[in-house]
Structure formats: structure tokens, C-alpha cells
Amino acid sequence: MRRKTEMVRSTCCVVLLLLLSVAARSASAIMDGLLPNGNFEEAPDKSQLNGTRVIGRYAIPQWEISGFVEYIGSGQMQGDMLLPVPEGAYAVRLGNEASIQQRLTLTRGMHYSVTFSAARTCAQSELLNITVTPEIGEVPIQTVYTSSGWDSYSWAFKARRSDMSLIVHNPGVTDDAACGPLIDSFAIKTLQSPPSTKDNLLKNGGFEEGPYIFPNTSWGVLVPPMDEDDYSPLSPWTIMGYTKSVKYVDAAHYAVPGGARAVELVAGMEAALVQEVCTVPGRSYRLEFSVGDAGDGCVGSMSVQAYVSHGSVKVPYESQGRGGNKRGVLEFTATDKRTRVVFVSMAYTMKPDGTLCGPVVDDASVVGVHSHRRLLL
Q1: Do both 174 and 46 map to the same domain?
Q2: Which of 147, 148, 150, 355 could potentially form a cystine with 119 if both were Cys, beta carbons 3.0 to 4.6 Å apart?
Q3: Could you say which residues form the signal peptide (predicted)?
Q4: Are 63 and 152 members of one domain?
Q5: What is the pLDDT of residues 142-195, one digit of tens each?
Q6: Which residues share a beta bridge with 282?
Q7: Is residue 214 part of a domain?
């Protein structure tokens, strides 16, 4: 009887351990969407505020702060300047060398994209350092792409561990510590690795896989330029440039040539969309893609130049700002085992409110010429 009781206890312990293991694994898979208190609507206790400055290191629920950090309410003024709050009633401002961070529970080895909103205040040239150790990136916020004064940005990384910290740091040093950028609305998304197929050597040619877009926003998400070693929120597409970005847009708020997502080239020749594909030297291929406008009031003569191998094609598009698109085609012969595909806008276009805009690129494909002809048959 005693032996039977011990066996029952042992079995119960094993079952309990299995349940705890399953619970731990399910807890490690972070859900796509807003981070806990990612929009800062849960306010610090009034005892933790000195005017707008946050005093306590853990005063903002779910966050840890360092340095000169302010809690800014919607409609708040700084001198004669209205401070823009991207979403809801509150945002956070980072002063000189200030930072804010939150612990994340992730799935080790997976790739993630962080989306957040930011605005310049009184400093003319600002950037933010985004870190999830050992990954670190710089997000320039010097150029404003909306008339509201703030934009949503994205940044991607690979989870090296299951428990990591997202750190947002303002490296700026200005005469006025209160001239740092405003930040708001932090969300996360797990990125999947889209495959290439025999029908399309380009991966993610329709741009369906990309950073999180807030469903209640109508301004898209900027994908900033990145170093070659960085992981892109639009992987495997990368953005080549210095400080300018491209804009990731959705069909719910923009005219998209195909599917639910596309890319608007909003920075003229200062930012290019790039991907390398595997090719066979001497073999012929065909590049096809859509060029149009996002239906966002961007009016004017636009054009997209596509470069592949030693060839290029320029696709002009006369935009009325109400949507529409046309196809671009380029046949080329590969000269290497890897061939770079590049899209760049050849003109700078502005809306009547003075904000930058540009042509939309979507539905890009590269196929072997013979394979393409068989598909037509």
C-alpha cells in the first residue's frame, strides 16, 4: 500500500512538472500588439512627479526609467509650442541621455519587430537608440512625414534569450534637457520568414510580412535605413540610405495594388528598397512589379527606377492622388550567383500640407524567363 501511495505521488509530481513546463512555454510566447502600458496611459502616482518630471525609477507602471524623463499630457504647451501626443492622453519625453526600458518575455531564436511613435520637440536633429542586447540600432527622427508632427517607426531584432530588455535611449545633448523627443505607443510583432518559391525568387515580394501597424492609425509605419548586419522589419528587404525612411502602408487606410500591404517610397532618391536573390550566372530572368500611388493625396509626376544586374528600367506614373497602379517589367541576364534588386523613387513629391510622399511599390517578382512563359501557357 505504501509503495502504491509513493507511485501515485510520483505520478502527480511528474504531471505537475509537465503542466508547469507547458505553462512556462506558453508564457514565453509574447502576443502581437501593444506592450503592457505601451501607450503610457497608466500614469505615475502624483507623489512620483515633480511637475512633468518623473522622479521614481519605477514610477511609470511596467517601465523603468533613467535620467531626465517627463510625463506629458495631451494639449500641454512648452512656451508657445504645443507638444504633440501621438495616441491617447499621455506620452513620455526623454531628455539628455535619458532612457526607458521594459522587460520582454520572448521565444529564443525568433525575430521580432517593435513599432512605436515619436515626435521631435525643440531640438532640430534627433535620433533614438533602440537596444535589445546585443542588438542595437539608431532610428533618426529628424524628418517628419506627417502633418501632425509625429510618425510611427519600426525596428527589428533577433531574440538571443527568452528574457530580455527593450531599452529606448536619447543620446542627444542639448542646452535644454526638456528638448528631447516624445515617444508613445510601443507594440511588438513576431516576424515570420517568408520563403521564395519557383514562381518568385523574391521573398516577401508582396510585402505582406512586415512590422506591426496600429489598427486605429492612418499614417503607416516608417522603416528606417539600416546597416547590412541588421535584421529588417520588412525582411529580407532592407532599406539603404542615411537618415531617410520608406513607409509601410496598409489597405485599410491606403490604396494598395495587391494584398493588404505595400511600401511607399517617401524619401525620393535618399532611400532605396533592396533585396538579393539567388540566380544562375548566364540565365535569363524577368522582374515584374507594380508602381502606383497610395490614394493619400500625393499628386504629381512620379517614377520608380528598378536596378537588376547590369540592367534598369524607369516606370513613370502620373498620380492624381486617388489610387491606381501600373506594371513595370525588366528582363535581365544574371552575371552572378546573387543578384541585387533595387527600387528607388526618382523624384521628391510633397502633399499640399508640405509632408513628403511618393510612389507605392508592390507585387514584385523575379522568375526565370522560361518558367514565366510556361506559367503563361
Answers
A1: yes
A2: 150
A3: 1-29
A4: yes
A5: 788 888 778 999 999 999 999 999 999 999 887 787 788 999 999 999 999 888
A6: none
A7: no
Identity of the residue numbered 256 = V
Q: What range defines the domain where residue 312 resides?
A: 238-376
Give the residue-averaged pLDDT of 116-133.
86
Residue 31's pLDDT band (cuts 50, 70, 90): confident
Task: Tell whether 87 and 180 lie within a shared domain.
Answer: yes
Same domain, 127 and 37: yes
Say how far apart CA 54 and CA 93 lie, in whole Å: 10
pLDDT at 38 over 60: yes
Tens of pLDDT, residues 320-331: 999 999 999 999
Torsions phi, psi for 81 (to 5 deg): -105, 130
CA distance 263 to 249: 6
> Does residue 171 sit in the same domain as residue 293?
no
For residues 155 and 253, state if they share a domain: no
CB 213 within 8 A of CB 201: no
Q: Are residues 42 and 152 in the same domain?
A: yes
Residue 212 in grid coordinates? 506591426
For the cut 80, the answer to whether the pLDDT of residue 23 exceeds it is: no
Using alpha carbons only, what angle is made at residue 20 by residues 14 and 26, rounded to the nearest 5 degrees? 135
Is 9 within the bounds of a domain? no
Please give the Cα distance from 341 to 125 (Å, whole number). 32
Number of domains present in the structure of the chain:
2
CA dist 84 → 70, 76, 173, 288, 296 (Å): 14, 8, 21, 41, 22
Q: Do 59 and 148 fall into the same domain?
A: yes
End-to-end C-alpha distance for the chain, whole angstroms: 77
Does residue 266 contact residue 352 with C-beta atoms inside 8 Å?
no
> d(Cα 297, Cα 358) in Å, to the nearest integer?
10
Q: How far is CA 3 from the centre of its chain?
A: 60
Query: In which band, very low, low, confident or very high, does the pLDDT at 228 lie, cut at 50, 70 and 90?
Result: low
Residue 111 predicted with pLDDT over 80: yes
Place of cell 520582454: 104
Alpha carbons 167 and 17: distance in angstroms, whole number: 34
